[in-house]
Amino acid sequence: MLVPIAAVWVFHLAQRRSMDKGIRKRNATLYLTLVLLAAWALVWLLAKFSLDNLYLVPIGFFTLAVLVWQRAAIFPFHARCARCGLPLTASRIMFDDSNTCETCEPLIREGENQ
């Protein structure tokens, strides 16, 4: 489980280059890393104290429940534009909070300024 934790954490660090327009997505990767780290710590405790593997079921259920409960905060990544439905580029999916394409983003910013 350390590989997914490290991968999400490295992705979180890569998001620093777009701090001005991707704060929500950067927080989402931090939250996901914390959830994965907590699940890993619980699994590690099970192994350390040689508890039955049956206890993995509640840990998995609890982790899944937290991910579903906080899905808006943890998974803000969308593959299509929220305004017109066109596919977004990978950089806009991963780093831009607006979830809009290059064409629709100026329209949204004009609406905010009015």
What's the topology here?
Blueprint: H1 2-14, H2 23-48, H3 56-69, H4 71-74, H5 90-95, H6 105-113
Task: Provide a short characterization of the protein structure.
By secondary structure, the protein is mostly helical.
How would you characterize this protein structure?
The longest helix has 26 residues, at 23-48. The protein starts with a helix and ends with a helix. The chain is mainly α. The protein has two domains: 1-76; 77-114, no CATH class. The protein has six helices and no strands. The model has no long low-confidence stretch (mean pLDDT 88).
Q: Number of helical runs?
A: 6
Any idea what the radius of gyration is? 18 Å
Question: What is the overall shape?
Answer: elongated
Helical fraction equals 55-70%
**Topology pattern, helix = H, strand = E:** HHHHHH
Identify low-pLDDT runs: none
Mean residue pLDDT: 88
Backbone structural class: mainly alpha
The proportion of residues in beta strands is under 5%
What's the domain count? 2
Query: Biggest β-sheet: count, sense, barrel?
Result: none
In whole angstroms, the N-to-C terminal distance is 48 Å
Give a count of the beta strands, DSSP E runs of length 2 or more: 0
